[in-house]
Write a structure and sequence with these properties.
287 residues, alpha/beta, TIM Barrel, 8-stranded parallel β-sheet, 8 helices
Amino acid sequence: MNTQTPLPRNFHVMAKPIGPICNLDCTYCYYLEKEKLFPKGGNFKMRPEVLETFIRQYIDSQNTTEATFAWQGGEPTLLGVDYFQRIIELQRKHSGGRKINNTLQTNGILLDDEWCLFFKEHDFLIGLSIDGPRRLHDIYRVDKGQKPTFDRVMAGMRLLKKHKVEFNTLTVVSASNVKHPLEVYNFLREMGSGFIQFIPLVERLPTEASAAPGTGATSLACYKMERSIRGLRGLPHLHIRGVDQARRRKSLCPNVRCFPRYLVGPRPGTLPFSRGLRGRLGLGAQR
């Protein structure tokens, strides 16, 4: 009889080593304002000792032969290639024989040959944020000067293709594109997205600060969008966050706080609030 206590099930941590800092100023973004939750001044970059502690503890916590890291922001490419080269070195140091996988979500603006060569060499899976064709994408996804970003995102996508970097797409379903499901879907397929993920933009309560009232798409609208797209056949590459979970819960409730995901931010003792995630893990705390 085996009396050994089983190890806890695996969990997923989304790492935000630069916190909320981003080079864009998307109208609907709820995360940019989280900069106010951090102490004023200083560097938002996750310190080397915190980064190494996180990597070591996260790998040690995984009860499998693999460990998958998800790097997000803000915009993680603001940290530079050298920072992520150090991440690779630390992962190798603490891998303990496990296979290490890396994913990175980016707006694509800073991608160049150096970044794409790095991604290819280390087999990164890249998530590229794009909200559809130009007329839909540029409504809300603008830079700090309020200029459109579509052309620069597409330039980044072409570099990913040039260097044969595997990439998926992440699209926010807003009041602008929810009415054009097949146009958005066909555009993403034509640009070569290997996996298409949609995230419904849920508006805040009237009592909460809101950067862009009226930009959100209701759960019913997202459901109709999903039905339109899934009217096509053979879509194993499609995921609509909130709708897919709602199907499993038999509810259209888009309350993503229910989902068991976690975050680690750039500084110990801070919680990088993000919609769709809950809890705080002490992985960045020094031991």
